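I am writing to request your help with a piece of structural work I have in hand. A protein sequence and the structure tokens that stand for its backbone fold form the material at issue. Please examine both parts with care and let me know of anything in them that strikes you as inconsistent. The record follows directly beneath this note.
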Amino acid sequence: MLGQLEDVGLPLIVHAGEGFPPGAAAETLLDRSFPVVLSHFGGYPLNRDLMDEAIDMLDSYDDCYLDTSFVRYRQQLERAVMEHPDRVLFGSGAPNAPRTSR
């Protein structure tokens, strides 16, 4: 299947986090020739260390992108947008993410 994705160049969205951390994505997917989108900044469920690891990976992998769904931390959001504005994809996680009242 990964070979077919390489043939067509379509992105792969990966449910990244504690079950499949950013480092695992780097080892198994990011050497391919298609874009990889790590959902939840690679830190589901709300793991700041994994999110930071995924943001760091943007320096090394041009085909790595981060999705903002379920990301609730301003520091990580601002850092990623400031350092790599072209590789942050905005998503809400709706309808699965509970809406917080303000």
Summary: The mean pLDDT is 91. The chain has one domain: 2-89. Residues 48-57 form the longest helix (10 residues). Residues 2-89 form one domain.
